[in-house]
C-alpha cells in the first residue's frame, strides 16, 4: 500500500492491493496530486500514476510539470488515471460555464505527455455539484489516459463509470481486459497486404474470369479464394515476422564466431524477406487504422496499430440505456433492443408530400435533362473510383476502394457495366 497524505480537508491518495494478488506494486515517486507505482508480474511491468488534481486551478500546473518530467524519463507502458478536475470538451459538462482556455490548456498538457484518452462507458458524467446560481452542474472530471505502449499492451482495456452513492463523484473502474463473448464468424475483409505477394494478382484474375459479367458472384468468388490464400499461402504476418527474426538472430550470432559466405548470403536473402514483411505489417495496420494523413511506407506501424485499437474502442458498443432508463450491458439484450429500435424506426408510416411545378419549383431545361440521362461512360466510373479514399470503410462484401483501384485493368469493364446498368434500370 502507498499513501499520499491529505492537505487540510482535501486531497489524499491511497494505492491498495488485494490480499493474495499476483501483482507487485513498487512506489516510484509521488507529489501531493499524484502517486506513481510500477505494477509488475514476473518480468512484465508497467507504470501507473494515480491522480487527484487540485481543485485550485493555480495549483494544477505543478501536477502537469510532474507528469511531463515522468513522461520524459519513463520507458514503460504508462497509465494515468484519476480525478483531473478539468474537462476537455464542451460535451463533457452540463450546466455552468465552459472555459475554452482551460480546456485548451488541458489538451496541451495531455499532448506534452504523449497520452491518449481511454474513453469510457456508463454514465456520461462523473461529478455532480452546484454552481453559485444554484443550478446543478455535471462534469466528466474523472478519466484514464495512457501512452501508446500501454494501449498496445491492453487493447481491450475499458473505463466504466459506476454508480455514484455517498460521494459527489462516480467511481471509475478500469478493466485491463474484458470477456468479449461469442463474436460469431468473422466477416471477410480484403487485405491490401495480399497484393504484395507475387501470386495474388494472378489468383484474382483467374477467379474473376470464372463468372465474368456477374460482379456480385465475382466478388464472392474472390473473397472465398482470398480466405483460402491467406490461410494456406500468405500466412500469419506476425508469425512469419517472428520466425524471420529468430533465424536472423541465429545467423548473426553464428557470424560473430565464424566467417561464412553461405551464411552471409542467407542473411542477405532473409533481410530482403524481412523488409518485405515489415512493409506488409505496416500496410495491414495502415489499412485497419484508416488514417489518410500519414504516408504509408514511413514505418509508422506502432502508430497505425494504436490508431486501429482506438478506432475499434470508439466504435464498440459496451452498453445501451433502455427505454426504462436502465443501463444494459448484456450482449443478447443489446442485440434485440437494437433490432427493435431500427424496426420501429424504419417501419413507421411516413406521409409522402408530392410537389408539383404549380408550387413554383424550377424545372430542368432540355440540355440539363439530356446531360443527366446520357449513358455513363467508363472514364466517369474510373474518375469517380480514383477520387475515393482508398481505405474508407468497406461495404457488406468486405472490399474497400483500394481493391477496385489495384485491379482496375482486370475488373474495370465489369464494374463500369454494372454501374451503367444501375443508372439505366435503377
TrEMBL record:
Q: Which InterPro entries match?
A: Endo/exonu/phosph_ase_sf
- Going by the entry's taxonomy, the superkingdom of the source organism is recorded as Eukaryota
Q: Which SUPFAM superfamilies does the annotation name?
A: DNase I-like (SSF56219)
PANTHER family reported for this sequence:
BNAC02G09200D PROTEIN, OS06G0205337 PROTEIN
Name-wise, this protein is RNA-directed DNA polymerase (Reverse transcriptase)
Output the lineage of the source organism.
Answer: Eukaryota, Viridiplantae, Streptophyta, Embryophyta, Tracheophyta
Amino acid at each position: 500500500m502507498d499513501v499520499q497524505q491529505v492537505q487540510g480537508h482535501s486531497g489524499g491518495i491511497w494505492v491498495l492491493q488485494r490480499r493474495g494478488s499476483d501483482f507487485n506494486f513498487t512506489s516510484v515517486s509521488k507529489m501531493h496530486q499524484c502517486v506513481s507505482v510500477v505494477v509488475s508480474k514476473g518480468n512484465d511491468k508497467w507504470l501507473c500514476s494515480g491522480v487527484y488534481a487540485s481543485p485550485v486551478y493555480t495549483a494544477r500546473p505543478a501536477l502537469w510539470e510532474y507528469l511531463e518530467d515522468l513522461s520524459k524519463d519513463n520507458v514503460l507502458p504508462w497509465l494515468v488515471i484519476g480525478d483531473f478536475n478539468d474537462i476537455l470538451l464542451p460535451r463533457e459538462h452540463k450546466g455552468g460555464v465552459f472555459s475554452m482556455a482551460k480546456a485548451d490548456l488541458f489538451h496541451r498538457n495531455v499532448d506534452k505527455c504523449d497520452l491518449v484518452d481511454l474513453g469510457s462507458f456508463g454514465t456520461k458524467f462523473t461529478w455532480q455539484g452546484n454552481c453559485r446560481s444554484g443550478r446543478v452542474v455535471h462534469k466528466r472530471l474523472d478519466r484514464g489516459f495512457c501512452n501508446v505502449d500501454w494501449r498496445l499492451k491492453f487493447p481491450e482495456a475499458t473505463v466504466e463509470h459506476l454508480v455514484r452513492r455517498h460521494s459527489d463523484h462516480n467511481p471509475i473502474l478500469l478493466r485491463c481486459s474484458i470477456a468479449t463473448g461469442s463474436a460469431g464468424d468473422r466477416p471477410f475483409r480484403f487485405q491490401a497486404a495480399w497484393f504484395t505477394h507475387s501470386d495474388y494478382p494472378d489468383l484474382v484474375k483467374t477467379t474473376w474470369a470464372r463468372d465474368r459479367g456477374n460482379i456480385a458472384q465475382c466478388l464472392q468468388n474472390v473473397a472465398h479464394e482470398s480466405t483460402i490464400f491467406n490461410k494456406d499461402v500468405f500466412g500469419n504476418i506476425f508469425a512469419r515476422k517472428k520466425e524471420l527474426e529468430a533465424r536472423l538472430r541465429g545467423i548473426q550470432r553464428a557470424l560473430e564466431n565464424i566467417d561464412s559466405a553461405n551464411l552471409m548470403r542467407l542473411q542477405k536473402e532473409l533481410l530482403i524477406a524481412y523488409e518485405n514483411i515489415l512493409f506488409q505489417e505496416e500496410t495491414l495496420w495502415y489499412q485497419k487504422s484508416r488514417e489518410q494523413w500519414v504516408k504509408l511506407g514511413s514505418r509508422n506501424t506502432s502508430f497505425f496499430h494504436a490508431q486501429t485499437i482506438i478506432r475499434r474502442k470508439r466504435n464498440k458498443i459496451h452498453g445501451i440505456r433502455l427505454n426504462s432508463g436502465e443501463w444494459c450491458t448484456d450482449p443478447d439484450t443489446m442485440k434485440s433492443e437494437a433490432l427493435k429500435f431500427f424496426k420501429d424506426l424504419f417501419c413507421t408510416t411516413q406521409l409522402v408530400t408530392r410537389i408539383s411545378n404549380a408550387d413554383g419549383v424550377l424545372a430542368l431545361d432540355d440540355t440539363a435533362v439530356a446531360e443527366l440521362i446520357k449513358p455513363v461512360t467508363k472514364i466517369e466510373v474510373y474518375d469517380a473510383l480514383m477520387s475515393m479514399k482508398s481505405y474508407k470503410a468497406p461495404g457488406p462484401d468486405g472490399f474497400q476502394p483500394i481493391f477496385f483501384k489495384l485491379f482496375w485493368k482486370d475488373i474495370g469493364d465489369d464494374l463500369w457495366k454494372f454501374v451503367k446498368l444501375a443508372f439505366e434500370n435503377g
